[in-house]
Amino acid sequence: MQDNNLDLPFWEGFSIWNFDRRSDGIWISLVPTVGSIARCSNCARACSQIHGRYWRTVREMTMVGEPVWLQVHLRRVRCPDCGTCAEHIDWLERHARVTRRLAQFVGLWCEKLPVAHVCEMTGLHWETVRRIERAKLATQLAALPIAEPVRLVMDEFALFKGHRYATVVLDADTRQVLWVGEGRSREAVRPFFEWLGVERCRQIEAVAMDMNSAFDLEVQQHCPRARVVYDLFHVIAKYGREVIDRVRVDEANQLKHDKPARQKVKRGRWLLLRNPENVPEDQQPKLEELLAANQALMTTYVMKASLKELWQPRTAWQWRRSWKSWLRMAAQGTLEPLQRFARRLHPYWRGILARLRWPMHTGQLEGINNRIKVMKRMAYGYRDSEFFFLKIKAAFPGNP
């Protein structure tokens, strides 16, 4: 079917020249509307000289349940300022093989569905959908204002199985994900400080993190004014693994002759790791019975509560007395796991004390890490880490 005068608002500046229904979809041929003036795709200047003409095949939104293919007759213009270049089209990006309308549709659904589902819904190739989404993410990130962080939060999350991690850096004030990189070593996080630059590094006043020496050393090297703040959650989690679990196993091994008592100790792990206020009421008697029957577990449980109090607001001198008291009690005890943990914790005292001046933690980044895991599960994993990091940064642009 041919119609030289059919002009529709879907494709501004073009008229339908031919319409054909084939086995693979609907094919529509478009030609420039009579009298339309071509504009330069670089400067949008109207150009009267035409250098040449060519056809481009483009995918459009699905209509009446069938794929739509556009064969567009395009012009190359001779611009006085830019030279020879393609004409500007409002509904089609330069060199694009899909219309802007379809690209926007793909970008919208990629925020909610895995790429494979979007491919099935639109009939586009996986690489085409991924390229469209990547361009959208790059545009979103480029539109964000330049970050001027003062406080940072650093943490890692599992990228793949096999102890492969990625590091996330968050602006603690705006909650914007500033940077994501693979690895958690000094070399892995150094590109972030190089991206931040010398001037912005000097503005950093505090950085919250776990007891990761790589993070600590890089912050000290690049941010001379920054104070490192160690997160309570990570320290207590480390205490649970290295002290409570080790003492519990040792005590269970000593009760081989008393199987009922041994089972209580072995099964009491989660009761010992929970905070007292989080223990269910029906489990309170079991916890009290367990602590009353085992002096070593009682000691580790009390020492954990005392350790947590070091993060409570107080003066520097009060903290110093509490810190020395905790170290002394740990050293004077008979529990080797507790003594070993205290020796390892001692060099990090400045990062614990900094909590009094900078009440920061990595909790907000832990919540973001949980959402990152959901994104990864929805997509059944990402083969391209760089693209995954773009999605993370676009998903957390910060507070308006």
Written overview of the protein:
There is one protein chain. The chain is α+β, with helices and mostly antiparallel strands and 400 residues long. The chain folds into 4 domains: 1-96, no CATH class; 98-143; 151-231 and 360-395, Nucleotidyltransferase, domain 5; 232-357. The chain contains 15 helices and 13 strands. It has helices spanning 100-110, 115-122, 126-142, 186-203, 213-222, 232-253, 259-266, 269-273, 284-293, 295-309, 316-332, 336-345, 349-357, 363-378, 385-395, and strands at residues 2-7, 14-22, 25-32, 38-39, 46-47, 50-63, 66-79, 83-86, 151-160, 164-171, 177-182, 206-209, 227-230. The radius of gyration is 31 Å and the shape is elongated.
Broad structural category? alpha+beta
Strand content: 15-25%
DSSP helix count? 15
**Helix content percent band:** 40-55%
Q: SSE string, helix = H, strand = E?
A: EEEEEEEEHHHEEEHEHEHHHHHHHHHH
Rg result: 31 Å
Distance between the terminal alpha carbons, to the nearest Å?
Answer: 52 Å
State the domain count: 4
Provide tags for this entry:
Nucleotidyltransferase, domain 5, single chain, Transpos_ISL3, Transposase_DDE, 5-stranded mixed sheet, 15 helices, alpha+beta
Topology:
Elements: E1 2-7, E2 14-22, E3 25-32, E4 38-39, E5 46-47, E6 50-63, E7 66-79, E8 83-86, H1 100-110, H2 115-122, H3 126-142, E9 151-160, E10 164-171, E11 177-182, H4 186-203, E12 206-209, H5 213-222, E13 227-230, H6 232-253, H7 259-266, H8 269-273, H9 284-293, H10 295-309, H11 316-332, H12 336-345, H13 349-357, H14 363-378, H15 385-395
Parallel strand pairs: 3-7, 9-12, 12-13
Antiparallel strand pairs: 1-2, 2-3, 4-5, 6-7, 7-8, 9-10, 10-11
